[in-house]
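The freezer alarm interrupted the setup, so I double-checked each line after restarting. Inputs confirmed:
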Amino acid sequence: MAPSRLASMAPLALGPRLRIWPPVVLAPMAGVTNYPYRKICCEFGAGLCVSEMVSSRGILDSHRGTWRLVHFGSEESPRSIQIFGNDARAMGEAARRLRDELGVDHIDVNFGCPVPKLTRKGMGAAALCDAVNSRRVVEAVVRASEPVPVTIKTRVGMDEDRITFLEAGRIAEESGCAWIALHGRTARQKYGGRARWDRICELKEAVSIPVLGNGDIFRAEDVPEKIDESGVDGVVIGRGCLGNPWLFRDLAALFAGDPVPPPPSRSEVVDVARRHFLLLREHFAGSPREAILRFRKLGCWYASGFGGAAEIRRQLQRIESAGDLEAIFEQWLAEPAPEG
Ligand SMILES: Cc1cc2nc3c(=O)[nH]c(=O)nc-3n(C[C@H](O)[C@H](O)[C@H](O)COP(=O)(O)O)c2cc1C
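Predicted 3D structure, all chains:
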């Protein structure tokens, strides 16, 4: 078998200063990629960890909820944030404030969110239906954030009648973006069907800036083929790493030319889940119940390989304290590992 192109790939340039290696990015995920999870994924080998999306309007209006989302660890580097909005002035101003007040190193523009609350207002994936305005938005962000690099993350389009990814590529390229990341689905599809990597390939052939492919990467072993077929310069990992930051370890190994390590043991999974919870508790120190509420959902992802998912979900839904969670961890550890 011919060696994969992956073996000879170079670090991804993110502006003149930053080099991303491996070229594997933790996708922005609302409610998930706050500082605790970014920290874990970076430690596991992700090349870049992007914050969840934040509203440019919320930044400008000094909205407390929005500013709570933009917390970075003191050691965190690079500081990468995703913003959304469709008002060029507000997006530019928000980018400037994030650069000046938080020292962010990278700004990603969200042109992919499929949630109707945003798309109804012409934001997220719908922003690109107005090519003139979305170009203005990107130009304003690039200008205002100078010298901080800007990227775009988008979908194929709103639906099959409104395909926008090639236009997005032109806008990114002509506005001076460092790269464009494409999730190979339309907004209408949400997460249904399969991500169209052939469209990611089409974008790669159409633009000269780096293209990152996104969609349905659940195992490191699937990545060499996706890279070879599409010619992308890097990949973005979303759902595949939920409860499974080992995916970044596995990808880092592949990019280093090493074999994929064996999957984690049950006690390793519990150790990382526990650490994630403790980091959330520190992160939400001002509102201790928040970590518990978040972990009711996040915990299920860690246990997804354990079998008995319905029972685990039921148990996690009822946790009220760190003690309740610890009792569940002890139970997971005591149960025999599933066969195979
Ligand atoms: C819980 C969740 C939250 C998400 N939040 C965002 C977001 O804030 N910004 C964004 O651009 N995409 C968001 N996405 C989309 C992902 O970044 C990614 O594009 C999508 O999940 C497809 O990649 P995957 O197949 O690897 O999951 C979110 C996805 C999930 C599952």
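Quick read of the result. The chain has two domains: 10-255, 266-334.
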